[in-house]
Amino acid sequence: MTRLVQLLFLSIVCSAGALAADQSREAYELQPGDLLHVVVWKETDLQGDVLIRPDGGISFALAGDLHAAGRTTEAVRAELETRVRRLIPDAVVTVEVKAVNGNRVFVIGKVNRPGDFALSRPIDVMQAISLAGGVTPFASQNRIRVLHRDGLQQKSIRFRYSDVAKGRHLEQNILLQSGDTVIVP
User: Fold this and answer.
1) Left (φ > 0), alpha (ψ -120 to 50) or beta: where does 133 sit?
2) 65 and 127 belong to one structural domain
3) Which residues are 21's β-sheet partners?
4) Domain range spanning residue 88?
5) What one-character-per-residue DSSP string does 33-79 give?
6) What predicted TM-score, i.e. pTM, was given to this entire model?
């Protein structure tokens, strides 16, 4: 009996830890370009893929237009459900991200493969440069800049590649956010 109590206790502790870890993680914020799959349960005409427009909005039958960018899938689901329930009182709506297309960073300049890269997970400046194939031999490694937009204001952040590569001044190896541009002169 004691072994059973220990296993039960261990199970409860592990479940509580997993729940706390899930709650501490921030939910993904939707971006323009992301593709959502929306389903209204038992309503075959009210399901399908919905693309988040460049203005951040989506359109869905019986719900009209609503803003989705910068919100979580749960927030969008709740608003859609509220709107649809005006016409279908017992509607149950689900929203899931089908494709993360809008969450991108850009690496330009003297790298081997410049371009835009999807942020399927958090990445820092060094990782972004790695995704771009690394710097070329002609790159000015200590004059790299990260352009970051905070609302309407844009700022330029200095990045010295050789310092970070040597394990110094690691604070400059920031996590990139959607829309950031890494410039390698």
Assistant:
1) left
2) no
3) none
4) 35-99
5) T-EEEEEETT-TTSEEEEEPPTTSEEEETTTEEEE-TTS-HHHHHHH
6) 0.65
